[in-house]
Amino acid sequence: MTYSEIVLDLINNDDRYMIMTSENRAAFRNLPPLIKNNFVDTGITEQTMIGMAAGLALRGRVPIVHALATFLTMRAFEFIRTDIGIANLPVKIVGAVPGFLSDGNGPTHQAIEDVSIMRGIPNVNVFCPADEDDMLKGLKKVIQYPSAFYIRYNMTKPVVEHSEFEVGKAEVFGDGKDVAILVYGFLFNEAYKAKETLESKGISVRLINIRTPKPIDEETILKAARECKLIVTLEDHFITGGLYSILAEVLLRNNKTANVLPFAFMNKWFKPGLLNDVLEYEGFTAEQISKKIIQRLAGS
Amino acid sequence: MTKEKLRELQKTALTVREHIIRMSGNGGCFIGASLSCTDLIVYLYKEFLNVSLQNLNDPNRDYFFLSKGHDVPALYGIYVELGWLEKERLKNHLKTNDFIYWHPNRNIPGIEFHSGSLGHNLSVACGVALDCKLRNQKNKVVVVVGDGELNEGSMWEALLVAAAYKLDNLLVVVDRNQFQANMQTEDLIPLKPLDKKFEAFNCKVETVDGHNFESLDKVFSKFPFEKEKVSVIIAETVRGKGLPSIEKRADRWFVNFIDEEIEQLLKELHGEAKAHLTSETIVAR
After folding, report:
1. A253 to chain B, minimum CA–CA distance in Å?
2. Which pLDDT score is estimated for B250?
């Protein structure tokens, strides 16, 4: 099933679900005529859309709202925090082209603090699917989950078939003990390829797909920290508030430390361009990641 | 409106004002805005809205949003008079063992949604109004907004969307007391001509004396003013209404009076001598 089909199926079976957008229809172009009364386009008005979503939720609806991730999570931040967070309403907030996926748009469109600010809001959880398969496996469960959720929309072609999805559970590939790579979202594919490269060089790898940075799967992270020589965090996000911070919080909360190599944006926006070129320029290809991990393991 | 009804509303408004004045000590409250919208809120709950603690789960009931938030003492006051809130609980104002503080919140039964951050409740009300329309229900959705609040871009953004969705079940009431926090609106960010601004956003606008129950009754009973249009009532009010010693004063936005001053203000409310106020005024907060 596609994104559209999953949502259509939910709406057809339950009138509470509604699609809202502030003029971003990429994920469901075919849907509006099929769901008439369950579709609301508010125009380029992220704040009003979130306020209205809260109003609809007060009436028992479950709005699934869409806009570009930057404008949705930042222009409307205080509306999400105040109208959705404080009221604890089950609105689903879908951010398009997050992280590297904004490729050629430039820094105005780079949602690379979204995970940090969304997870900081009480009652709002965060789902960062690795690719299309991961997103579609989790979508229904996340939409039906009783809390609000921020969803980092990601239609990247999968390189692997994902396992069953469960909110708050990471997906683990392998049980390597040399290095554990923690990743969420779009960079999963690079991490997967890096795992193969490293294993071909005799390095044992455990790849951990952090499907929901919130609620976080603390147990899986602590196990990796206990068993692996090196922990890598890999994210298309500022170093502040994302996976690196989450790891630090988990370790600190449990009186632990670890040998950590972070891949993130260090206090800067990334160079805009064609996606593959951007990855290369910023040092986030599988090859570049593997190389840095090997260097780190050799040096540590 | 019968003379009896008029007297009853005036009596209730006077009592609500007493509650507000009593909340203006021991930490204080935003007294100016609370007193300017008191008559509006009394009229809405006593005469206009089909909402009660008994019908909160009825999908056909009306909805009321107090968007400007600061004036929540007026809401607490009317809830006491409606029997929704025990009078004793007003003594819990600003106490951590209750939920009676400077802004509305949903822990107080009857309060539809929290406010305090300006420019939010209009869009929330639009969502409720849209849902009522989608379900072919006849609910009225009323939002009281501040004139200062109209500085917020999100208010006008929400009006654009409300007009696009032809939300004629939505009634926006402006408590036009001419003041924002520290300044007269026209001295800071002028709003005039306010009616024309709303009309330009495709709303149908009426202007009324916000302290005259008979006038309020005439205007509100015309709602909805026009099919497929948002109705707007500009209620001309006086900040601090009922207390000449603080009326229309920029420096009596937020107050924290001592007991003696409160006693004097209660007398002033009933037409006795003007209060002698010595407590420091809080201009900016």
Report:
1. 29
2. 85
Domain ranges in chain A? 3-152, 171-299
User: For the domain bounded by A3-152, which CATH number is listed?
Assistant: 3.40.50.970
Give pTM, 2 decimals: 0.97
Is 2.40.50.140 the CATH classification of the domain at B3-269?
A: no
Q: Min CA distance, A117 vs chain B (Å)?
A: 19
Given a contact cutoff of 8 angstroms between Cβ atoms, the answer to whether A26 and A162 are in contact is no
Sheet holding A92-96, edge to edge: A39-41, A17-21, A62-68, A92-96, A148-152, A124-127
Using alpha carbons only, give the angle A172, A174, A179 rounded to the nearest 5 degrees: 95
Q: Across residues B206-228, what is the average pLDDT?
A: 98
Q: Is the pLDDT of residue A300 over 60?
A: no
B283: confidence class by pLDDT, cuts 50, 70, 90: low
What pLDDT does A101 receive? 98
pLDDT averaged over every residue in chain B: 96
Which residues in chain A are closer than 8 Å to B122, comparing Cβ atoms? 51
Question: Where do the H-state alpha helices sit in chain A?
Answer: 3-13, 46-58, 69-70, 77-79, 114-119, 132-144, 188-200, 218-227, 243-253, 275-282, 286-299
Nearest-CB residue to B161 (from A48, A58, A87): A48
Q: What angle do CA A261, A180, A209 make, to 5 degrees?
A: 105
Q: Do B114 and A86 touch (CB under 8 A)?
A: yes
Matching fold, domains A3-152 and A171-299: yes
Give the burial string for A205-225 (b: 16+ CB within 10 Å, else e): bbbbbbbbbbebbbebbbbbb
Fold of A171-299: Rossmann fold (3.40.50)
